[in-house]
Each structure stands twice: as C-alpha cells, then as structure tokens.
Sequence to fold (367 residues):
Amino acid sequence: MKKYKKLLMVAPLACMLGTGAVALPNAVHAAESLSSPASFTNIYDDGTSYTKETLEKDLYKRILRGIENTPELRQKFKLADDEGIQREKGASSLTDPNGNTTEYPAINYGLMDQLSKVEAGIVGSHFDVNPTVDSYEDLGQTNLLTINNDDGTVAQTAQTPETTEKFSESMSYSNSTGMKLGIGSSTTVKVKIPFDLGEVSQTVNINSEFSFNNTVTNTSTHEKSVTFKSQPVVAAPGGTTTYYGSIKRAKFSGTIQTDAYLAGVTLKLPIVKKNGNSYDIVHTEEVTLTPEDMYAIFKNGLPVLPPYLSFDDENKKVKVNNAPFTFSGEGGYYSAVKVKFTPKDSNKSPQEMPYKEYVAKAQQGAL
Fold:
C-alpha cells in the first residue's frame, strides 16, 4: 500500500486580512509564538518601533476586528448580531466561463485617514525636572530710588517704593515621533532652575511651572511678575546713592523620560450585513473612542501587541514604551537689590555692591 503525505495549504496572510479573516499559526508554531512575541510580530508584519505611520498601519489591522469582538463597542456602533463593519478593498473583476466580466469597484471610506488622528499622550500629569542651564541673561537694572547726600555729614534714611516688572516665561517641547503633552488632561512640568551667585556654595533654585492642556501647540507661555518690595534704606554722606533691582533670566533645556498612552479617536464606519452584499451599507455610525476603548481593541483585535506597545491593565490603556520628550525654555527670573554709591569727590571711583554690603560699609564709614 502506498503512503501519502498530507499537505497543508495556508492562504496568504495579506489576502485573509483583506477579507477580515486572520491567519493563525498552526498548533506547533502557536506554542512557540506564545513564548516568543517576535514570532507573532513577524507574522502580522508589525513595526518594531513607534512612529505615527507605524501605529496607523498596525492599528489598521486590528481596529475593525477589535470593535467587532468587543461587546461594549458593538453596542456603541449599534451592531446587530448579523452585522459587521464594511471592509475596504481594491477594485476587482471576475470573468465567468462564458467570458462575461463583472467589475467590482473599490471600497474606501478613508479608514487610514481617520486613524491618522490617533495621538499618543504622555503618561502622568505632573513632572518635576532638573534642567541644564544653557546660559543666563542679564535683563538690566530697575531704578528703585536715588538719594543725593553730597553735602551731608550723616546718613539719610528713606523708603523705596514697591516696584513690579513683568516678563514672560516659556517652555517648548518636542518628540521625534510626534507624541503630545496634555492629551486627555492637563500636564504640568515644574522646572527647578539653579542660579549660581558666583560665591562658594551660593546657588539659588527658582521654580517655574508650565502647563500643557491641548495638542494645538507645543509651547506653554505665561506672564511672570518680579516685585521689589518697599524697604527702608540709608544713604551715606558724601555722595549719591542709587538703589536698583537686578534681574537675571535663565535659558534652559533637558529631557523628560516617560511612557505615553494611546488617546481615543473619532471613527465614522459603514455597517453591512455579514452574509449580505458587502456593498450594501445598512447604516453608518460615528463614535468617539476613548483610551479604554483602544485598550479593548488591542486586546481583542489580534493575539499579540506590536513590540513598541504594552498594556496598562490597571488603568485599561495602551502604553507606548519609553517616550523621551526634549524641552527648552527661558524663565526663572532671579532678582536682587544692589546699590551704587557715587562719591562727590571725583577722585574717588563709584562703587557697586549688594545691599547688605553697602549697609555695612555705610555704618563703618568705609565708602
């Protein structure tokens, strides 16, 4: 008796995906793949790292199947038991044995364009960062009070007025893959900016806070007020004393290293009968999917995630792993009161010094 080998035919994956069917590995391959996600990745031709284009392509393979396999999403799209979502496909034709050709037009309702609106937003709503200061900028002097005591023999006392200067602080961020801050909820970044005072162990940290609450712009800008409080001062005899405010601004940059999550998206999908004509649309539904819906779609779409994604099962979200954001900005605004003493005697040079030093010298008659 002759022995015959059994042959297993497997339809090309691309064809099966195009009709809504999914080619699964055979039993042996499946067992290997469960312990080796890379095998699945190769089967479904997923990307290896995140870009918006890669995400759109990988989501395109999963979105319709994921919706149909999730009861809550079937309800959102008002899918009856005998209904499914229409599949896009290219134009085709079929010629019968009698030579009669039937043309089938393409079905394209812009699903990929709709998926291009999916954004990835940073995980977390508050970040404390320690930036690198690239440079300091001296913003000049604010005259607080000038007292002429050229002919006096004793120190005069006075009160400086309260003076406020207004500036702007700004911070911009970027991400090489187009991810966003402030998706779903406001993201606050608190920047601790060091100001070196030029003395041993004399560094002051100024905190600046920036909020990102939309995806329109990557820049957060707000007004910053610097106030020099009113205070009593003295004017040494034998010259003119000028009290002024000195303000410095820092230019800074740095990196925020975190994960991101997939936000929702609005989809408008045509619904057809499962066993009917794929061109006969029964109804069309427009639904705004939430991040939790995206989680369900990836859970129920295909049996594995692309390697650049992971599940946050606690919060029911899909995470984009390791999303670095770079940022730069200017702000901080360190302020100090300084004093300039110009002697009446033209043979003596003017002196500039911090306020405390001037008070000490005035008391000692050392000006």
Q: What stands out?
A: The chain has a mean pLDDT of 85. The chain has one domain: 52-83+110-367. The CA atoms of residues 197 and 316 lie 48 Å apart. Residues 52-83+110-367 form one domain.
